[in-house]
Amino acid sequence: MLRTVLFGSLDAGASVFSTSGAKIAFDRFERDGPVALVSAGGGFRLEGGAGAPLRMRTTTLGAALGGYQFIRDWGAVTVFAGPEISWEMLAGPGGEGALPVRMGLRLHGEIWARPSQDTLTTATAIVGSARGDAYARLSWGYSLFGAYLGPEIALYGDRTDYRKWNIGLHATDYALGGYRLRLSAGCQIETPRDRLGPYLSLALWSAL
Length: 208
Description:
By secondary structure, the chain is mainly beta. 0% of the residues lie in helices and 79% in strands.
């Protein structure tokens, strides 16, 4: 019997990106076994400045991945691989222009570990060839007020030399109705524009 978890996320700062999709287990999420991950998303960011003309990059992404999850007493490790597709548009003083559609391979790995009864450690790493991008996030939390509260750090970069570092605090696995959520906030640094500012991230998931 298929088991499905629907999810959605929004990352907002100097750049904005949202994603939604589904994670599917072909047996139970509490057991070792094959899984699939289907997602689609989009966002935008400003580029240029410091004497260069400002332009907006709009990105649309989609992926369909297959993988395997390993369930242990201390937590879970999941690995995925599969095709991804990317489409981008640039808009600036010179007008608008669509970039060619790119297809590539995405690798995705996640760890959710509970070193103790009251703590949660998560690690995520994603690499994609369609945009030449990579993302990594690491968090630790202590169970308090119905969620795991603690620090997080994240890094993103792509082939355009864009880099983004996030460091902040998160509340993960808070129950709200039939949903679980993660809320994060902190400071963000973007290059090559060298901008420092706040960020806010929200993720929701729900089992069908």
